[in-house]
Structures are given as C-alpha cells and as structure tokens.
Amino acid sequence: MPKLSIIIPALNEEKSLPTLFESIKDQDFKDYEVILADAGSADKTLEIAREYGVKSIKGGMPAVGRNAGAKEARGEWLLFLDSDVFLSGKFFKFLIEEAEETGADAATCAAIPLSDKLIDQMMHGVANAYIQLTQYFYPHAGGFCILIKKSLHDKIGGYNESIKLAEDHEYISRAQKFGKFKMLKKPKIYVSVRRFESDGRLNVAAKYIACEVYRALLGEIKTDIFKYKFGHHYAKLPKSKELSAMIKDWLNKIKKGF
Q: What pLDDT was estimated at residue 218?
C-alpha cells in the first residue's frame, strides 16, 4: 500500500498535465500512486495519463472526480490536486513530514502564482493570509491542494457533490469537526493564473468575494448563480525544467522587490 494517493480531477487538460506529471515524477518522496479522474475529455488527456503510468477512472465535476478517486485510493493519505499546478522536488516530503509532525489530519499550504505580475502576487498573498488567519474557526482550503487522511475523508462522507462552488471549503469545514486542520508552513505549491487571465482578475476576485458573502449569509452554493466553469482553460504550461528555472527567476525578483 502506498503512503500517499494523489487524486487529480481533469477535463481536457492535455496542455497542463505533462508539466504536473513531470513534477510528480521528480519528487524525492516516491511512496505514492496517482489517480486521474477524467470528466470525459475530448483531447489527449487520457493518452498522456497512460504515457506516465497514471491510473485513469471516470470522473465528473471536481467533487465527483475527487470522490471517485478517493474510492479507488489505497494510500493512508489523500492529496487532491488541480491539474494545472506545479510541485517543487521536495513538496511531498515537506507535506507529509509537517502534517505528521503537527498532528494534522487535514491540511493545505500557501499557493504561489506562476506569474511575475505584482497584481497576481498580491492577490494570492491576500488569499494565503486569509486562509492562515481563519484556519482555526472558519477553515478554507482551495482544491489546488488538500491533504487529508483517507480515514477522515471516509468518515465525513467525502465531498458534497450537490455544491456548485466552494465545495472544497465546505469539505474542510466538515473535516475540522472530526480532526485537526492545519495550513502548513514549509510546503508551497505553484498554481496557474490561467483562470485570472481568461476570465479577468477583477472578475475572478469579485466572484470569490461574493461567494464568501453568499456562504456566510445564505449557506452553501447549490445553484449555478456564479456560473463556475470546469475544463475551459487551455493555456499551456512550460515544461517542468523550464518552469523550475522561471520560478527561481521570479523568486529572485520578488526578493528584490521587482
């Protein structure tokens, strides 16, 4: 049995998956399995998964795909990732080590945008700070990175598939009632800004803020009022090695204040 089961919901992600799969293959930590929950891709998503030896199963919208992947998973820990993220070489090692050291049953980490634009750095910085500040009383965790013990996932019944948006936050809120949730400090995950670029940064930010207000006042979002789209962002990520070099360059710029 693997220590870690990585579950990735996907729809038409032929342009982003090679970079993610390469970054997974380059991990120092090797005790894992990868499960792709495909929502009916019409491109080469499944072909790419086969090339990397990734197990593919039938998925659906993100919550459906994550639950389907969890049912197939054999690991002690489940790690839910988005298809357009990039992992540094010690990401799995840092993630598991800190989760176990802190006694966490579920966890997330800070998201670093794959962009050198100041606006993207600022928006993600605010989001990270919000998750850090609210983790003990109003927990949040983006679907780009959620680590949870499989036993806890099973205990809470997985994701609520009737929720249209912010199902990841609701999932973590339920998980915290039965286990310890932490925003881990050492691991960082690199995330694409393609949704910001295709839908507009202010539009996306406004939608997420409105979503928070809606949930606080009216409860979970079970209608299509926010018109969340899955699988319509087709921007291609650079290859894994190129992306590693770009990230180092961006981090140097950030340290120097751009």
A: 93
